[in-house]
From TrEMBL:
Cofactor note: Binds 2 Zn(2+) ions. Binds 1 Mg(2+) ion.
InterPro entries per UniProt: Alkaline_phosphatase, Alkaline_phosphatase_core_sf, TAT_signal
Active-site residue numbers: S102 (phosphoserine intermediate)
Signal peptide: 1-33
Residues reported to bind Mg(2+): D52, H153, T155, E279
Cofactor: Zn(2+); Mg(2+)
Residues that coordinate or bind Zn(2+): D52, D284, H288, D326, H327, H435
SUPFAM superfamilies: Alkaline phosphatase-like
Record-given protein name: Alkaline phosphatase
Species assigned in the record: Roseibacillus ishigakijimensis
């Protein structure tokens, strides 16, 4: 028996060294906690982590990209080989479509029912369903929502609010008051009196209700104990790729890992059961934009949050960490290139040369515009390659609304053509610019992880979480 344990530890140490430390807490601290943990043990806290819109092909690409630019692996990839982690697939349809949107997906997790796309915890007949945040608040349990989207966006909103339309974010914003103790992300415009249609000063309302309101990275780190509302950007937080290129953005906007650390530290120091949702939202946005650089940098930012959570709970035997996605999006993949695919690695290495998201690239073009030569120069300075005349003309024609010959309706748009242009130089490809029906990856580690193995319907998550937290 001792020999077996020694062999296992050696293997874990080898895996940890290969990933430059990522695996050390996965295979040591958590293993120590699990020695005390019995199967079926109930957690006192659950961290539910969502890489929004992450298709199956993203995980291996993110692992390869991390090894390439950071010389270390990713936490989620390491988690896949953890000896006691549970793994499965999430079945993702909504009430009215094989392909869900984020509103219906989060609502299914939260309410226990599949709802039509576009609705937040409102069923097909228009009746409000009880979101999980309201259930928890009735039981004196705590809810936290951390995201790189607007905090009023579909995924965080689904855990705490009701709305016939996901787009009515002014209506959604005040509903968190008695349902979520921590709110961190973007979306200042839905709380600021001057930006709201009704002129209501929600920041003042939250302060009156006992929340600390913060608006910058420094303010977040200085925040004291108690309820917390932090919005760090007017809309969604900037893409990680763009943040990494800007000292000003780095000073203003915290990373997902930093926001998660602040939230989790508050919950771990308390006694009440808690549920913390953490969303890497811009993975989904980058997939809609066929933006491989934006997607992979935000996936790594999400993975950094996973690593931070696993590190923080590594010596706890009462915390469950669930990592998944709500749906696929555009199914990005690395394609084999060159004779016998020998140019694949070389092409993929070019992703590291991309210095701006497609959102930022197009914003710069809008300020400048011009002809093909101007576009080629901008792309070369931003992306590290010069697009061909044909590539440039196709993208510019699509941006201008002119007809472009592209047989795929999914790709016959600026995002699709821009993704193809970049894909010609990175070896990456996309099936379209919309969500997909494929099931998503699901991993769980900690007390109650066995509840998240196998094929799981998205509308079964609520009962699993409440059964574990509240019994």
């Amino acid at each position: 028996m001792k020999s077996s344990n020694f062999s296992l530890n050696r293997r874990h140490l080898l895996q940890a060294s290969l990933s430059a430390g990522v695996g050390s807490f996965l295979f040591s601290g958590s293993a120590r906690a699990e020695e005390k943990m019995k199967k079926g043990q109930r957690p006192t806290g659950i961290v539910f982590m969502v890489s929004d819109g992450m298709s199956q092909g993203v995980l291996p690409m993110a692992e390869a990209f991390s090894q390439q630019i950071r010389q270390k692996g990713t936490a989620w990839w390491q988690l896949l080989s953890h000896p006691t982690a549970a793994h499965g697939l999430m079945d993702t349809p909504s009430f009215n479509s094989l392909v869900t949107d984020s509103a219906a997906a989060s609502s299914a997790w939260s309410s226990g029912q599949r709802v039509p796309n576009g609705q937040i915890c409102v069923d097909a007949k228009g009746a409000n369903l009880e979101p999980i945040g309201l259930t928890l608040s009735k039981e004196k349990a705590r809810l936290g929502l951390v995201t790189t989207s607007r905090v009023t966006h579909a995924t965080p909103a689904g855990f705490a609010t009701n709305s016939p339309s996901r787009d009515d974010e002014d209506f959604i914003a005040p509903q968190f008051l008695d349902r979520a103790e921590i709110l961190l992300g973007g979306g200042t415009r839905h709380f600021k009196a001057g930006d709201r249609k009704d002129g209501r000063d929600l920041f003042a309302d939250y302060e009156k209700a006992g929340y600390q309101v913060v608006g910058s990275r420094d303010e977040l780190f200085r925040a004291g104990r108690g309820k917390l509302l932090g919005t760090f950007w007017d809309s969604h937080l900037p893409y990680s790729l763009d943040r990494n290129q800007s000292a000003a953005l780095q000073k203003q906007v915290p990373t997902l890992a930093e926001m998660t650390s602040v939230a989790l530290r508050r919950f771990l120091s308390g006694r009440a059961p808690f549920l913390l949702q953490v969303e890497g939202a811009r993975v989904d946005h980058a997939a809609h934009g066929n933006d491989i650089g934006g997607l992979l940098h935000d996936q790594l930012a999400f993975d950094d949050a996973v690593a931070k959570v696993l590190e923080m709970v590594s010596d706890r035997d009462d915390i469950l960490v669930v990592v998944t996605s709500d749906h696929g999006n555009a199914n990005p993949a690395l394609n084999g290139t060159g004779a016998r695919y020998t140019q694949t690695n070389q092409h993929f290495e070019h992703v590291a040369k991309l210095k701006a998201s497609h959102e930022e690239l197009l914003a710069r073009w809008k300020k400048k515009e011009g002809g093909v030569k101007d576009w080629q120069k901008l792309v070369e300075n931003t992306c590290g390659f010069q697009p061909t005349q044909a590539e440039s003309e196709a993208v510019l024609d699509s941006i201008s609304g002119r007809e472009v010959i592209e047989w795929s309706h999914q790709l016959n748009n600026p995002a699709g053509l821009l993704g193809q242009m970049v894909g010609n130089h990175t070896g990456t490809g996309w099936t379209g610019v919309s969500h997909t029906a494929d099931p998503t990856q699901l991993s769980a580690l900690g007390a109650g992880s066995e509840q998240f193995s196998g094929l799981i319907r998205n509308d079964s998550v609520r009962d699993r979480i409440l059964g574990l937290l509240l019994g």
